[in-house]
Automatic annotation (TrEMBL):
Gene3D superfamilies: Glutaredoxin (3.40.30.10). It comes from Streptomyces blastmyceticus. Pfam families: DSBA (PF01323). This is DSBA-like thioredoxin domain-containing protein. Transmembrane segments: none annotated. Residues 22-199 form the DSBA-like thioredoxin domain.
């Protein structure tokens, strides 16, 4: 974990949480490293008894905007066999549908996660987690409006009518783009990147990886280090900040 100044000349750093009881997590929904991170955040928070006390502010790190292209299926598929072994309970499977049903964008789903925050942290957290499982474990096209709403309905905690209205009016769209802009110029290094209220931050927490025989979409990932204990360190520190 590293530490960044929590204020700038213009005021508080926009990457940081607004309150001490919250972790900001910049992610994309179709990033396998983020799927591991979010799974570990939820399971570790539950194990530590911090549910209801520490919250996750899931913010958009849209890879398609950074890379100006679709997050390529060959690269994603190559990660599953490696990263899936680190956290099999997160839920994984190779895409089983035709190529033309593969998600071309995650922006509507990221917008839905942001819109759900109007209903409280639990609604947003559970929708984010459910959308990840819908994509990674169930092979659903989370680019589609009806899939997003079906997934929201299955959580049992999201007001689907309110979410549909937010999507149809685009109320959360500006926030998603502002999160993307706040992450530009290397200020957020990757998906996932976690920030705490006091400036503590960790990019791809606990995991160090490299690619062999080509970059993403051509070669394969190799995990040089995996230290899940960092999640307990982050959550315990957040609990101290909010005490």
């Amino acid at each position: 974990m590293k530490h960044i100044p929590h204020t700038t000349a213009a005021g508080r750093d926009p990457r940081l949480p607004h309150t001490p009881d919250t972790l900001v997590v910049f992610t994309d929904l179709n990033c396998s490293f983020a799927h591991i991170a979010v799974h570990r955040l939820h399971t570790t928070r539950h194990r530590l008894g911090l549910e209801g006390r520490i919250h996750f502010d899931l913010r958009a790190f849209p890879l398609e905007l950074f890379n100006e292209e679709v997050n390529a299926r060959p690269g994603v598929d190559s990660e599953i066999s490696v990263l899936g072994a680190l956290e099999p309970d997160a839920g994984w499977r190779l895409w089983q549908g035709p190529d033309w049903t593969y998600p071309v964008t995650t922006l509507p789903a990221l917008e839905a996660v942001e819109a759900a925050k109007a209903q409280g942290w639990q609604a947003s957290e559970q929708l984010d987690l459910a959308l990840r499982r819908a994509f990674w474990a169930q092979g659903r096209c989370i680019s589609m409006r009806h899939v997003i709403l079906d997934t929201a309905r299955a959580t049992g905690v999201v007001d689907v009518e309110a979410l549909a209205d937010a999507l149809d009016t685009g109320r959360a769209r500006r926030a998603v783009i502002e999160q993307y802009r706040a992450a530009c110029d290397g200020r957020v290094r990757c998906s996932p990147h976690v920030f705490l209220y006091d400036g503590t931050e960790s990019a791809n927490p606990g995991v160090s990886a490299r690619w062999v025989n080509g970059d993403f979409g051509v070669g394969s990932p190799v995990i040089d280090e995996d230290r899940p204990a960092v999640y307990e360190e982050l959550l315990t520190h957040a609990a101290k900040l909010s005490a």
